[in-house]
Amino acid sequence: MALIVSLRNALPGLEKACIQRQIHVTPVAAKVVAGRYRVTTKRDRPLTYEMANPPHYIAHRKGWNSWNTSNMTDGNRPAETLLEDVFIRRFVTGTWHSLFVSEVIIKRQHNIIRIAGIIRRGIATRKMYFLIGYTEELLSYWLQCPIKLELQTVDDRKDVIFKYI
């Protein structure tokens, strides 16, 4: 009961403090931190080449993860293309669970969609060929266009590490 009484006494002062406007005199911290990775104290976080370059180096040192022309002026189906790219990325990362060691790159040329990436040799060759055919067939059926997987393989995840931060 005493707590409720003390809260009633404190609330009017709190309401006044919230209603008053304050002037902030600190400078604006216009730091660009999106897409950048923080340096760890032990410098043990591995980064690939794609991750090591900040976003403002896109088209200078690294390429886009989706190549399409639908976002240009009067482009066809920009929203559908975006949703298809998200669906493709989720399907591929789910089908090739923990095998992709790089980002999934999607290139659209006319009506062909090419999906590229680097995978590790963690499964038998026979299973890998099955997954390639499975992925191409299902995505071709769902998206109603030819799909081609362009995969490179590496022995270990450490083979794609560019630097540690």
UniProtKB/TrEMBL annotation:
GO biological process: translation
Keyword Transcription regulation belongs to the record: no
Organism: Neodiprion lecontei
Domain of life: Eukaryota
Residue spans crossing the bilayer: none
Listed GO CC annotations: mitochondrion; ribonucleoprotein complex; ribosome
Protein name from the UniProt record: 28S ribosomal protein S24, mitochondrial
Keyword Transcription annotated: no
Family: Belongs to the universal ribosomal protein uS3 family.
Major location category of this protein: mitochondrion
Species lineage: Eukaryota, Metazoa, Ecdysozoa, Arthropoda, Hexapoda
Keywords: Mitochondrion, Ribonucleoprotein, Ribosomal protein, Transit peptide
Subcellular location: Mitochondrion
